[in-house]
Amino acid sequence: MSVGPFKQRSSWPSSVVTGLIGWNGFFVIAAVLLGDAKLAGSFFLLATIAAVTQVVLLRLFFFLLRLNQSILAAAFWGGLTGIAVVMAESRATNLFDRHRLVWLLTGLYVGIAVGLFLRYFHRDDRRIESKAQNEGRSIDYGRDAHWLEPFFFGAVAYVTAFLPGSFSLGVIILVIGAMSGVVAAGVSHFFIFSVSRKSILPILLAIVAGAGQGVISGLLFRPFASELKFNPLIHGAVAGTLTYLITAMRGRALASKEVVQSVQS
Q1: Torsion angle, alpha carbons of 149, 150, 152, 155, to 10
Q2: Is the pLDDT of residue 261 over 70?
Q3: What's the predicted TM-score (pTM) here?
């Protein structure tokens, strides 16, 4: 069975996407919190360069640096390359000057996270593949093959709810929407669906949870209040509700599919 590169979380394309999600997400959110929301587009570009640079370095020397064997190695080299990339970029731009320490710490945090995720995805994919080979069946990554869907659902939901009118606002909406989608997926999987999957209650809980998280995320859009049709909190509530609703329904569909496959096998 052929498995696409974005369904295998440890593939090169997926590794680059992992880096882009981490760097863009935290750089843009940090820019908003530091009062540089209008420069979100510039920080998005810097984050993209940082992500690609770090991931390429870590993947090229993945086994040499023993990222596949040691959590400490993954965290150390991830953090070191994260700081190094930010320091290199700070020589090419003055955008980091006002909050240099904060940006260095952000680079350290994101770098460590990316290093750890690359290690985890590599080891988990090898485990799944080894198990499939030992059992003499085709490789099936299950729900893990859909790991990118929550980012997409969140981004679409937030763009739909906010309808950005500027590039900077659009960047912030996409990033916060994507990150919200991941949180929604986690809440749906670990908490909401602990209730019977046959009940409508999980969907109702998803709507309530989404509205609450959406309102909180709406606070980040206050610098753009003049560009929005309604209060940012209202846009956030709608966006969060859509994100959780779509994610919860998709999660239920995948869970039902797994049950059917389990019965058939």
Answers
A1: 180
A2: no
A3: 0.85
